[in-house]
Design brief:
Layout (H helix, E strand, L loop, with lengths): L4 H8 L3 H9 L6 H14 L5 H8 L4 E5 L8 H17 L3 E5 L4 H10 L5 E4 L9 H6 L4 E4 L9 E5 L1 H14 L5 E5 L2 H5 L3 H17 L5 E3 L4 H14 L5 E4 L5 H10 L9 E6 L1 H6 L5 E4 L2 H17 L7 E4 L3 E2 L11
Parallel strand pairs: 1-2, 1-3, 3-4, 4-5, 5-11, 6-7, 6-8, 8-9, 9-10
Antiparallel strand pairs: 10-12
Length: about 350
């Protein structure tokens, strides 16, 4: 049975209004009475209504997760992030308000002005994100999952995507591959200047240049048909292709199938690696050697950073870049003749 405020009042021998005052701090009560009420709450397992908690703490105990579902976003991975944030927030007795509309500054302002949330976690960060000036001006703390070109005083966390791409290329280069390709995010993701996608291209190109590799970059729409077209184009334009890095979870499986149908065996003829969550790489028909996208860790640490900002302890680092971790699952091998 649900314990009510009247049950607490009866158990503590006080009026319901006194219990309410003890919870909200709206009126002073004696220390003895407050302790008696708190002991009754503990014994009965009473959970105050969120509104009462908010009055007592001047907080809503709600975090906003801002993740506009724009074109080109891979929703299953976004939902993994959302689950990790919600799980971590609950461990801090906070709920999460998920904001998915593409409202930009207007949406952030609306939420901040209503005191619905105590703090914000912002995803799908662009290199020159128009939301940044507003985030800097808000009286509520925020954490960005992603790194804009100029974070300034903002707190950011993410996988080091540039280093992740470099690790993939280094792995292929060490196996003797000389022609490698990046099959990247959908074109609209690059058009928006999405930070993580741009950093992957930077890292891929830089590492390929260091090793003197021929390394074309191909954005790819998130569909099996697009994966087939990219595979055909790559083999037509780069007949010596022997290595591919995939940064597009939606096409990892259909791209592998397309290369197989075109006569290339993985890894005998084509070494395949990816940047994606471990679950995606492990569950593929051909398990894929990959740099892990540590969704659960990023979400949990973003919440921890936000909690520390809310309580002002301990000092919060402005930048948290998680180093890449590559797991070999057998989809890469030495180039024939290398």
């Amino acid at each position: 049975m649900t314990v009510k405020i009247t049950d607490v009042a009866r158990h503590a021998g006080v009026s319901p209004s006194t219990v309410s005052y003890a919870l909200s701090g709206k009126r002073p009560i004696s220390e003895e009475t407050r302790l008696r009420v708190e002991e009754s709450i503990r014994q009965l397992g009473y959970r105050p209504h969120a509104g009462a908690r908010a009055l007592a703490s001047s907080r809503s105990n709600v975090l906003a997760l801002v993740v506009p579902l724009r074109a080109g976003i891979h929703v299953p991975v976004v939902m993994r992030f959302a689950v990790s944030v919600v799980t971590a927030a609950r461990s801090h007795d906070h709920d999460v308000l998920l904001l998915t509309q593409e409202e930009g500054e207007e949406g952030l302002r609306r939420v901040a002005d209503t005191a619905l949330v105590d703090a914000l976690i912002v995803m799908d960060v662009q290199l020159h994100d128009p939301r940044l000036p507003l985030l800097r001006s808000l009286d509520r703390p925020s954490v960005l999952i992603g790194f804009p070109a100029d974070p300034g005083e903002l707190t950011c966390i993410d996988l080091d995507f540039r280093a992740a791409a470099e690790v993939c290329v280094e792995h292929l280069a060490a196996l003797g591959h000389r022609v490698v390709a990046l099959v990247g995010s959908p074109p609209e993701v690059y058009v928006r200047g999405t930070a993580f996608a741009q950093r992957v291209v930077e890292g891929f190109t830089a590492a390929a240049d260091r090793h003197g590799l021929l390394a074309p970059v191909h954005p790819c729409e998130a569909s099996p048909a697009a994966a087939r077209r990219v595979a055909e184009q790559l083999l037509r334009e780069q007949p010596a292709l022997t290595g591919v890095v995939v940064h597009n979870e939606a096409v990892l499986e259909p791209l592998t199938e397309a290369f197989t149908e075109l006569g290339l065996r993985v890894p005998a003829d084509l070494s395949l690696t990816a940047i994606c969550p471990d679950e995606v790489a492990e569950s593929a028909r051909v398990p894929v050697t990959s740099v892990s996208l540590p969704v659960a860790e990023i979400g949990s640490r973003a919440v921890s950073l936000l909690m520390n900002k809310l309580t002002n302890t301990p000092p919060v680092p402005r930048a948290t870049l998680l180093p890449p971790r590559l797991t070999d699952r057998g989809s890469t091998g030495r180039r024939a003749g290398a």
